[in-house]
Design brief:
The protein has 736 residues and is an alpha+beta fold. The chain is built from 26 helices and 32 strands. InterPro entries: Nucleotide-bd_a/b_plait_sf (IPR012677), RBD_domain_sf (IPR035979), REX1-like_exo (IPR034922), REXO1/3/4-like (IPR047021), Ribonucl_H (IPR013520), RNaseH-like_sf (IPR012337), RNaseH_sf (IPR036397), RRM_dom (IPR000504). GO terms for molecular function: exonuclease activity; RNA binding.
Length: 736
């Protein structure tokens, strides 16, 4: 049964920035798993990493979080597909930050100046013909029946065969050979002791296709034990003393447990069946499945680590765990069947085994060196870098990385500089080469004409100005001597207010209110327009400017944003309430997953609103109906669908507090220059979004895709980056 990979990220909270090191941590684990000491990232979690079909990183060169929200409507695909987003700390040297220091990839010359290491890093079909796996199974994927041993192969590898002279008295499982590609798989492993009779079973384990243990039984040998082989079997004399189960009991149980079309999987399974004195027609032997030349075989421990990223048969344990070994063999067979011979051959297991042996030799030699005279020094080689690049690790494992781009990655030496290649050419190359690579980095760019610092400054001011307008509402008219306290109280029930001023230019007084969160401003427009406040029937509206003409469209799209799915905003809370209080108050709501209580980033005081995330969108809709009109601690609550995730809320707060009430025409001249190119820029962004959509649709299911707006860090100022990520599911969406 195929396992689906899942991504879990606690990113709803206050939207803390993710550092380059944390991003590196994620990519390294996604690419390598537990091999090469890669650990689960500290800020998110990947479930079933070994089942990832690949990792694809799309880098949007010289673009920042600013670009995403300035052209939010144009990034239609990105905002509707990727469920997880995070603010990314900008870096002055992004390629090195991403790929890590010490990268040794040497890019070859590629046609038309296309920046790529694919020619060197991707094993083409012609290079795989000599691989023993391809020679045995061909390049195309097959069902499990294509990998079961034939009768001749069983005879050649000493499997017990019906009617063979050496199998007299053996018990048949009575399973037939009518197996199909949907026949059930079972992992089997036995531990043996040496007795006067020879090898006899002392422990048997059987697991089903999901890895669930069906049988794990100690067995009393018929003859006297000569050697318990405790170091390998884990069996001791004391363990077997109370055991009553005999081999015949196990044989009977296995016959009952296995369906007629069962396929047994094991590593050197012939030894297990010989010890069990049983005959079974349908077997997959992982020691033969992962074929090597000249009749050699990979050890199960090595395969589990190299292919599955799992450590088994650890030295700390006393002997082997047959259930662990049976499960490892089963998962190896499932991996081979799911991925096919070509993908397995591309792992280049021989290279990995060689690298592992060399590493052991180096460690042993280093351990023998006197202090201050290391192995590297003896070879007159420079000392290793403190932070090895995970792309180097990928090459060692045979998982060949692909790098494609149009901008020079000069500082890392990974790619050649060539600005002539178009995004369209890069996309075409990516569609061809990404399926061949376990790890790919694809870099697109808007072009050098759009990365000037003055354009960034103008873009920033436009985004800040628009967000400020969206956070602002005008209410009125009021009577001449209206009560400001009543107005502040009523509008404060919609959410935290940043500023409240009286507009005196009008015939009757109006009030200008700027909120801290988008939801509060929208709630005020929706709930208080036409209401009676401070003795007057008022109108509530946002500023009317050219930039605000598409405000309603933007609000609607923010509501539909996949990241806001199942999230609602609740206002009108008393500031004395803590997260614990709120958890208790909202505990009756069905499927509540997370509660986030925003706090002032300077004082740390909680605001009078919160966000609730539910496991199911319908539960969020039900909660909306239930909460509106609730009274909590004497305060009436108001709620609506969420508009801004945690990272955007934090960014808005920083924009408002860093810039305060600076004039909107500070960058007037720069904005004039920007206006000439912005229409063309919108078209380019829309096309870029389409390129990413096309690339994403071509990816296999269970592929982790990360889209990065790296941010900008220079002497002219810095802009935070943005990351979007998700694991593609069977329906082409980004799985949670």
């Amino acid at each position: 049964q195929e396992k689906s990979c899942r991504l879990s990220a606690a990113l709803l909270g206050e939207g803390s920035e993710i550092s380059q090191e944390q991003l590196y941590e994620l990519l390294k684990y996604a690419a390598l798993g537990k091999c090469h000491k890669a650990a689960q990232p500290s800020w998110c979690r990947i479930y079933h990493q070994s089942h990832l079909a690949g990792v694809v990183v799309v880098v949007l060169h010289e673009m920042s979080q600013l670009h995403f929200y300035r052209f939010y409507l144009q990034f239609k695909h990105l905002r509707r597909v990727f469920r997880h987003r995070f603010t990314l700390t900008p870096s002055a040297n992004f390629p090195v930050s991403l790929y890590g220091e010490g990268t040794n990839l040497k890019p070859p010359n590629t046609p038309q100046g296309l920046t790529s290491t694919s020619s060197e890093c991707i094993t083409k079909s012609s290079d795989l013909q000599c691989d023993p796996i391809i020679q045995r199974y061909g390049e195309k994927k097959q069902g499990l029946t294509g990998y079961t041993l034939t009768l001749e192969e069983q005879k050649k590898n000493d499997y017990p065969i019906e009617g063979s002279p050496g199998c007299k008295g053996y018990i048949s499982t009575e399973c037939d050979q009518q197996r199909t590609d949907s026949s059930p798989l079972f992992g089997l492993d036995c531990e043996m002791c040496l007795t006067a009779k020879g090898n006899e079973v002392t422990r048997v384990s059987l697991v089903d296709a999901r890895g669930q243990c069906l049988l794990n039984e100690l067995v009393k040998p018929q003859s006297a034990v000569v050697n318990y082989r405790t170091r390998f079997s884990g069996i001791t004399k004391k363990m077997l003393l109370p055991v009553k189960t005999r081999l015949s009991d196990i044989q009977t149980r296995l016959k009952k447990m296995l369906p007629h079309d069962a396929v047994l999987v094991g590593h050197s399974l012939n030894s297990d069946l010989q010890a069990l004195e049983m005959i079974h027609p349908s077997v997959i032997d992982t020691s033969l499945l992962f074929a090597r030349s000249e009749g050699r075989r990979f050890k199960l421990k090595f395969l589990a680590k190299a292919v599955l990223g799992k450590e088994i048969q650890c030295e700390q344990k006393l002997g082997h765990d047959p259930t662990e070994d049976a499960r490892a063999a089963l998962e190896l067979a499932q991996f081979f069947i799911e991925q096919g011979p070509t993908k397995v051959a591309e792992l280049n297991l021989e290279m990995l085994l060689t690298a592992e042996k060399l590493a052991e030799v180096s460690q042993n030699k280093a351990a023998l060196q006197p202090q201050g005279c290391g192995f590297q020094e003896q070879l007159n080689e420079p000392p290793p870098l403190s932070k090895p690049c995970f792309l180097d690790c990928l090459q060692v494992t045979g998982q060949k990385p692909l790098l494609l781009g149009r901008q020079g990655l000069d500082s890392s030496g990974l790619c050649q500089s060539n600005l002539s290649t178009s995004n369209k050419q890069i996309l075409q190359r990516a569609l061809e080469d990404v399926p061949l690579s376990k790890f790919s980095i694809i870099q697109f760019s808007l072009g050098p004409e759009y990365i000037a610092s003055h354009l960034h400054a103008g873009l920033y001011e436009k985004v800040r100005s628009k967000l400020t307008d969206m956070l602002t509402i005008y209410a009125g008219p009021f009577e001449e001597n209206f009560c400001m306290k009543s107005v502040k109280k009523e509008f404060g029930r919609c959410g935290p207010i940043q500023s409240l001023t009286v507009v005196t230019e009008t015939f009757q007084p109006y009030v200008c209110i700027q909120y801290e969160v988008l939801e509060a401003a929208q709630l005020a427009v929706e709930s208080l327009n036409g209401a009676e406040v401070a003795g007057s029937c008022i109108k509530v509206q946002r500023p009317v400017t050219a930039a605000m003409l598409d405000c309603n469209v933007l609000i609607k799209e923010l509501e539909l944003d996949v990241e806001n799915e199942g999230v609602i905003y609740v206002a009108g809370l008393k500031k004395s309430l803590t997260e614990t209080d709120l958890q208790e108050e909202f505990s009756q709501l069905k499927d509540l997953e997370t509660l986030f209580l925003p706090k002032d980033l300077q004082s740390g005081k909680p605001r009078n609103c919160c966000f609730l995330k539910f496991q199911k969108p319908q539960s969020a809709m039900d909660a909306l109906e239930a909460i509106n009109g609730w009274t909590m601690k004497g305060s009436e609550l108001r709620s609506r669908n969420a508009l801004a995730p945690g990272h955007l809320w934090r960014w808005i707060w920083q924009m408002n507090h860093n810039n305060g009430k600076q004039g909107k025409h500070i960058f007037y001249e720069k904005m004039e220059q920007l206006a000439d190119s912005e229409q063309d820029l919108r078209k380019k962004v829309k096309k870029l979004d389409h390129h990413i959509k096309k690339l994403y649709r071509s990816l296999q299911s269970n592929t982790l895709c990360v889209v990065l707006f790296p941010g900008v860090s220079s002497t002219h100022g810095s802009q935070s980056g943005l990351g979007l990520m998700g694991i593609k599911d069977d329906e082409g969406r980004s799985a949670c």
